[in-house]
Every structure is written in structure tokens, then in C-alpha cells.
Amino acid sequence: MPTIAIVGAGPGLGLSLAKVFGGNGFDVALIARNKDSLDALVRELAESGTTAAGFAADTGDHAALTTALTDAAARFGAIDVLEFSPHAGLVVVEPKDVTIENLRPQIDQYLFGAVAATQAVLPAMLAAGSGTLLFTTGGGAISPYPQLATVNIAQAGLRNWALNLHNALTGTGIYAATTAINLMIAATAPDGIPHRSPDEIAQTYWTLYTERERAEQVIA
């Protein structure tokens, strides 16, 4: 049975992704910082017939993240799909106020975290000649929001690298793509606020996985 590892798993999009892939025959490895939250997600997925396990790690702690993915691969046999979508809330920093100190945590979490996660699973994918790498950013990775300068920088770097991976991995059997979510992830929102439910967004990831064509999907 194939396995998806969801890095940054939570009760919103992460859970919806787990349900979509789990409903299509995948086992699910959930990775996030809080073990209690992971245990709750595992129980909820079990109720719908999906086999899942949680592995606690912060994407900013690259050694711990690597260990979590290694343990997940050992538990399920292999990681066939890596989905990377950490979220620690919106950090408001104007472009003029960016410093090395306030930028570094975002780079550690998003860009370096994605690199660490990928390096934990890519060698086995290359050896098998198959696999999928799905990276999530916000719309600011493409067209930056002034108040989210540090997050934009980190996610733009991740987007650039993911697109580069997509091209470089052509012909290897490995598919890489990035999704930029440029709206609120919610079933409902205040009037005038663009939004889409996590269940609906998760279906977009399944389409990317099955079609294996586009390097980038923008959800707006």
C-alpha cells in the first residue's frame, strides 16, 4: 500500500489531505510539532478506515524532521508521496524591517525544512524510480504581500527550488510540484474574503498527483 507523509499536518488542510489520499488507498504518516494533536488526527482517520501514524517534529529542527521521516518510512515501508505544508501563523514584518534575525526562522522552517524533508525521502524515490514531492506556499511566494516580507522571502525560495526540481527530475519517475494558496482555507469566511474549504483544496492535490503534469498550481 502506498504512503503519503504530510509534513505540517493539522486539523485543516493536513487532515483533508490525509482523508483524500487515505480514501484512495494510502497509508498516512503525519508529521507536526504536537504529539497530542497528531494522536487525535490518527484516531479520527482510523474511524474512516485510514491507517495513519504520527511522528512529532518541528520543520525548523532539521535533524528531528529527518528522523521523523526516516521513522515513518521504516513504519510503512517507504514514502511514496511527500507533502510539505508547515504553517505557524502569519508573521507580520514589513520589507524595510527585515533583518537576518527575523528572517532566519522563516528560512529554517520553510526553505531549509523543505530541503531537509526532501533529502530524507528523495534517495529512496530515485532508487525506486518513482515518487511525488508536493510543496505548499502562499500567494506571496509569487506576488509578495508587503506585511509578510519574511514569510514571502522564504516561500519564494521554496517555490523557486520546487520548480527547479520539477524540471531537473524529468525522466527520473519523480514528480515535483508546488501549490500556492492565495486565499483563506476555510469552509466559510466573512463577506468579501476569498476562501475555499480544505476538503476542496485537498482534491486539487489529488489531481496534481494523478495527472503529474503541472509544475505549479495556484489556488485563488
What report would you give on this structure?
The structure is a single chain. With 220 residues, the chain is α/β, with parallel strands linked by helices. It has a single domain, classed as NAD(P)-binding Rossmann-like Domain (Rossmann fold). Helices cover 46% and strands 20% of the residues. The protein has six helices and nine strands, in the order βαβαβαβαβαβββαβ. It has helices spanning 13-23, 35-47, 62-76, 100-128, 149-168, 198-211, and strands spanning 3-7, 27-32, 52-56, 81-84, 131-138, 174-181, 184-185, 195-196, 216-219. The strands form two sheets. Strands 3-2-1-4-5-6-9 form a seven-stranded parallel sheet, sandwiched between helices. A two-stranded parallel ribbon has the order 7-8. The chain starts with a strand and ends with a strand.
SS summary, helix count: 6
CATH architectural group: 3-Layer(aba) Sandwich
The CATH first-level class comes to Alpha Beta
Report the count of strand segments: 9
Percentage of β-strand residues: 15-25%
Q: Could you outline the blueprint of secondary structure elements for this entry?
A:
Elements: E1 3-7, H1 13-23, E2 27-32, H2 35-47, E3 52-56, H3 62-76, E4 81-84, H4 100-128, E5 131-138, H5 149-168, E6 174-181, E7 184-185, E8 195-196, H6 198-211, E9 216-219
Parallel strand pairs: 1-2, 1-4, 2-3, 4-5, 5-6, 6-9, 7-8
Helix pairs in contact: 1-6, 3-4, 4-5
